[in-house]
Amino acid sequence: TLFQLREEERVLLVDVRPAFFYGLAHIPGAISLPLKKFDGQFPGMQAQFDAAVSEGKVIVLYCTDEDCPDGRRTAAQLSELGYTTSVYKGGWKEWKGSGL
Fold first, then answer.
1. pLDDT in tens, the chain (100 residues)
2. Nearest to 74 by CA among 88, 56, 54, 90
3. Is the pTM here over 0.70, yes or no?
4. How far separated are the first and last CA of the chain, in Å rounded?
5. How far apart (Å, rounded) are the C-alpha atoms in residues 69 and 73?
6. Is 44 helix (H, G, I), strand (E, B) or coil?
7. Is residue 13 within 8 Å of 32, Cβ to Cβ?
8. Using alpha carbons only, what angle is made at residue 42 by residues 37 and 46, rounded to the nearest 5 degrees?
């Protein structure tokens, strides 16, 4: 489903891993919003999130893999701000392992 949403440009894909890992590799089209820097970085990115919502895009967060809690924690923070999100549980490892 994520691949299809991405191909149809109907997703705002958010990598919540530390910026170092995003810099090494990430899902194409993803933006970086590390959980530990959420409070400092989100205000500057809020317009991008608002635009995605107004365009009917799905906000999908991902971390390293299913064992990484950062996606769920970031989703909780965004929920408190009124955003609906999904978490790609397989994360970067699953995406990379699928050969995409």
1. 888 888 889 999 999 999 999 999 999 999 999 999 999 999 999 999 999 999 999 999 999 999 999 999 999 999 999 999 999 999 999 999 987 6
2. 88
3. yes
4. 13
5. 6
6. helix
7. no
8. 170
Contact 88, 71 (CB under 8 A): yes
Other C-beta atoms closer than 10 Å to the C-beta of 46 total 12
Both tokens of 93, joined, read: 């490892």
If you search the block for the tokens 């397989």, which residue do you land on? 90
- Here the contacts of 66-74 (C-beta below 8 Å, separation 24 or greater) are 66/90, 66/91, 68/17, 70/16, 70/17, 70/34, 70/35, 71/16, 73/35, 74/14, 74/16, 74/33, 74/35, 74/38
Buried residues in 21-36 as b, exposed as e (16+ CB within 10 A): ebeeebbeebebbbbe
